[in-house]
Amino acid sequence: MARKVLVLGEVREGNLRNVSYEAVAAGKLIAEGGEVVAVLIGETVASLGAAMIQYGADRVVTVENEQLKNYTPDGYSQALLAVVNAENPEGIVLGHTALGKDLSPKIASKLGSGLVSDCVNVEVTGGNIVFTRPIYSGKAFEKKIVTDGVIFATIRPNNIPPLEKDESRTGDVASLAVDIKDLRSIIKDVVTKASEGVDLSEAKVIVAGGRGVKSAEGFNALKELANLLGGAVGASRGACDADYCDYSLQIGQTGKVVTPDLYIACGISGAIQHLAGMSNSKVIVAINKDPEANIFNVADYGIVGDLFDVVPLLIEEFKKVKV
Ligand code: FAD
């Protein structure tokens, strides 16, 4: 059954996040040959429409307004709901990002629809759109189908591959005027931390350190290894609590949930709350001097040893090969 599906493109610092293209790929599956309409919300976003089309969207609707320069729950929900009301879609897809997690339940409650959140896979099986999502902190997966109403889903970044970019694709980019009003929160200023390299939640390679790294300086070698591999540095809460690094790097139940292709855990014991944020990584390498450490139970490759010996050796070896 062909459906019209709305997909929200997520804009950060003037650029589309990768999860936007992944959402288009999910939207295509849900549309089953129907139309995928990308929605872009912000102050000036129309120039990003072409990229959404090149990654598979059929057309783009933008809502541009100076009050939408930064995300606010009221502003974005008014903008997205206006597009939903104008387009009347049968499916909606957002990234399961900080923004998507905040916005999607608001929209679902206004529409009176359900919401299948944090999906890691979407497939068409036996005539149904089947969503797979982790439960019990990633220890099991459940499969869901939507039997009634709008098919509304959020997808976890880094799980559904985007379609190949096709620069010859063209499509309509139209704007919808929306009167944004009654904002209960107004962003006066955005203070960003100096970001170093790759965004942790979208990184393909993560080198994460735990309390075993022993100091902020100890993280320098992990940063070097991450840079060599084109990846990002992450941390356990143990390392954040010990002030070795910023809480924005924390991975786990109360930190970020990541699914990189390669996760290298250095001096991390593997507490259940840490595993909740990384156990779905495609390949896990653990370096720990305790052979009984729980992290080895989820690792594909385990190195029992002192990270201060092993990480420099890895750096030395990776320098020899072009990654
Ligand atoms: P530790 O458990 O102290 O482990 C350090 C490891 O380093 C040990 O295994 C040790 O063998 C190894 N080591 C030491 N020296 C070396 C060396 N030189 N070379 C190699 N290995 C070495 N934790 C998270 O990470 N993320 C979360 O989101 C999170 N949320 C939580 C939420 C709640 C409600 C609670 C109660 C806890 C949460 N925690 C979370 C904390 C979690 O329970 C653990 O305390 C934490 O993950 C431990 O961090 P760690 O593995 O770095 O430290």
TrEMBL record:
Binds 1 FAD per dimer. FAD binds at residues 211, 236-237, 250-254, 267-274, 288. Its cofactor is FAD. It comes from the Bacteria. PROSITE patterns: ETF_ALPHA (PS00696). Belongs to the ETF alpha-subunit/FixB family. Pfam families: ETF, ETF_alpha. GO terms for biological process: fatty acid beta-oxidation using acyl-CoA dehydrogenase. Residues 5-190 form the Electron transfer flavoprotein alpha/beta-subunit N-terminal domain. GO terms for molecular function: electron transfer activity; flavin adenine dinucleotide binding. It comes from Schinkia azotoformans LMG 9581. Keywords: Electron transport, FAD, Flavoprotein, Transport. This is Electron transfer flavoprotein, alpha subunit. The keyword Ubl conjugation does not apply.
